[in-house]
Design brief:
With 197 residues, the protein is mainly alpha-helical. It contains 6 helices and 5 strands; from the N terminus they run βααββααββαα.
Length: 197
């Protein structure tokens, strides 16, 4: 899952060489895009922490750069399969038992139960039999229902909504950088240092 951004430079006056304009554009826009994607990574990590810290740590950013067409590109991504499952849900399937056992072990303070009817009792996660029964119960639930959104994890589409809700802030950051770029181009700036991102 990835959220990408690509920003195209505005048309430059003929009085300024394309090389100088590109240098000024890079000096203004790359830091602005990096600020934006860094803030988005932070927001996505905060949204993800509700579900699993492993998925939260998996969010990364690809540092902004100028591509072959002269546009500034950068992205935020995760390779964590479980983050994708949190975002989109999962069809009915029978996941492997070992990762479910590991997940149950990590859920300190969460009460799990085994047995039915009069034999229902709180599971002792330290006991391998109880641990296996809890993991098998989760596995059977996923096999029967898939993984729809639940109250204790982000709702389906949460990461896309987070990115979309961040867009106005990101647009302000890049609009300010674009305005600095325009002013520098109009003033005949020979290129060089960043004007203040």
């Amino acid at each position: 899952m990835a959220f990408g951004v690509e920003i195209k430079p505005v048309k430059i006056p003929d009085t300024i060489s394309k090389g100088v304009a590109r240098k000024i554009f890079a000096a203004e826009m790359i830091p602005a895009v990096n600020i934006g994607i860094t803030e988005l990574v932070t927001r996505l990590k905060i949204r993800t922490i509700k579900a699993t810290s492993a998925a939260s740590r998996a969010w990364k950013r690809r540092v902004a750069r100028i591509n072959a067409w002269g546009n500034v590109v950068g992205s935020v991504f995760t390779a964590a399969v479980h983050a994708i499952v949190l975002e989109k849900g999962a069809r009915r399937h029978r996941p492997p038992i070992e990762p479910l056992e590991d997940w149950v072990r990590r859920k300190h303070g969460v009460e799990f139960y085994v047995g039915k009817g009069d034999k229902r009792r709180e599971a002792d996660i330290g006991d391998e039999d109880d641990l296996r029964k809890v993991a098998e119960g989760i596995q059977n639930g996923i096999a029967a229902r898939g993984l729809p959104s639940t109250p204790n994890i982000p709702k389906l589409g949460e990461f896309e909504r987070t990115a979309e809700n961040y867009r106005p802030r990101f647009n302000r950051i890049t609009a300010e950088a674009m305005e600095r770029y325009r002013r520098r181009i109009e003033s005949g700036d020979p290129g060089g240092a960043v004007g203040g991102a």
